[in-house]
Design goal:
single chain, HIT family, subunit A, about 20% helix
């Protein structure tokens, strides 16, 4: 998609602090962090949402998991992190992505800290 900011980041057409990547996935810092470590992991291919994943996306999904594991190890947050998928009205960018959250939360009252 030409106007998708995540597609532009994946293609190197928009700036982001890259934390890891593979052939089919890339991880970068959120521009609106809700925790000390807030990294987004996306497929490089445009997939709108979790509900749009198909059987032939299995390799992409696995690469996203491997990139997330490397970021978790690199950030040394294995002792406390969350991997979150937002959907529907809670998904701000229409490009499937995970939020990797670790470290001290920015807002102690955040619902994510209570789940």
């Amino acid at each position: 998609m030409d106007d998708c900011i995540f597609c532009k980041i994946a293609k190197g057409e928009a700036l982001a602090k890259i934390r890891g990547s593979s052939k089919n996935a890339i991880a970068f810092d959120s521009i609106d962090p809700v925790s000390e470590h807030h990294i987004l992991i996306i497929p490089k291919m445009h997939i709108e949402s979790f509900l749009d994943l198909e059987k032939d996306h299995a390799e992409i999904f696995m690469e996203m998991a491997q990139v997330a594991q490397k970021v978790i190890d690199g950030k040394k947050i294995a002792g406390g992190y969350k991997l979150v998928i937002n959907g529907g009205k809670y998904q701000a960018i229409n490009h499937f992505h995970w939020h990797l959250l670790g470290g001290k939360p920015e807002d102690e009252s955040d619902v994510l800290n209570k789940t």
